[in-house]
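Thread: "does anyone have the structure for this chain?"

Original post by V.I.:
We have the sequence but no experimental structure in hand. Need at least a predicted one for the grant figures.
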Amino acid sequence: QVQLVESGGGSVQSGGSLRLSCAGSRYTASSDCLGWFRQAPGKEREGVASIDSDGTTSYADSVKGRVAISQDNAKNTLYLQMNSLKPEDTAMYYCASDTCVAITNMTPGNWGQGTQVTVSS
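Reply from O.Q.:
Generated one for you, tokens below.
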């Protein structure tokens, strides 16, 4: 496993933007995926976005069109650009890496510590 460290969270008003970073993110196999997840207090963990080693991305319906996931392999850093943020986006955001199957099932074996995103109305 690789150490993952998230950053870039903070407080923003509704409609604002944030760019989250996940240092240490890298692919170790062609079947790997990298992803962002979030969890709000009292709610289930939710998959936000993922990207495979070919650059194919996937997004939750709730964020589609408002966020973009990208991976900088040279910097071993995963990003999540979030625009048009809504109060319901408020959550702790985590990055993760594992096989694409594990990412899809929301059971990755490698997680970061998380970064808090708070969106006020």
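V.I.: this helps a lot. DSSP finds one helix and eleven strands in the chain.
O.Q.: and The chain has a mean pLDDT of 96.
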